[in-house]
Amino acid sequence: MTDVATRTIIAVKFAWEKAGKTYDYFVDFPVVVGQRVYVPTKRGEAKVEIVEIKTESEMASVAALRPVEDLRTDEEKQAKYPNGQRKYSEDRTLLDEKGNRSIFDDVDR
Predict the structure, then answer these.
(1) Predicted pLDDT of residue 37
(2) Among 6, 37, 96, 100, which lies 20 to 30 A Cα-Cα from 83?
(3) Is 90 exceeded by the pLDDT of residue 98?
């Protein structure tokens, strides 16, 4: 009798989903809940947050691509606007007060 290796499955939440709906993906690298990863979608890659780690899923059919690397310095990680919104994304892009990418991110550095 042979053991069948089970693949890890993650449930992820897209930022635009309002009702708490999650989507399942296979993953071939170590992950933890709360981590952000890139997943393939019909419109290209999307950055999502892992909300659950599973061992079974009928819905998973595609694998997550890679983890999101946080390139920010410690100061950039701590930098926040007065409303509590962070100033920099993981790829060091300057964000505005609403969390959107700045149109001036290439000249603000």
Answers:
(1) 93
(2) 37
(3) no
Half-sphere exposure of 37 (CA within 13 A, CB side): 30
Whether this model's pTM surpasses 0.85: no
Name which of 4, 1, 14, 7 is nearest 47 in CA terms.
14
> DSSP string spanning 2-64?
-PPPPPEEEEEE-TT-SS---EEEEE-S---TT-EEEEEETTEEEEEEEEEEES--SS--SB-
pLDDT in tens, 57-70: 888 889 898 998 88
Sheet holding 8-13, edge to edge: 23-27, 8-13, 44-54, 36-41, 66-67
Tokens 């603000």, residue located: 108
8 A C-beta contact, residue 63 and residue 28? yes
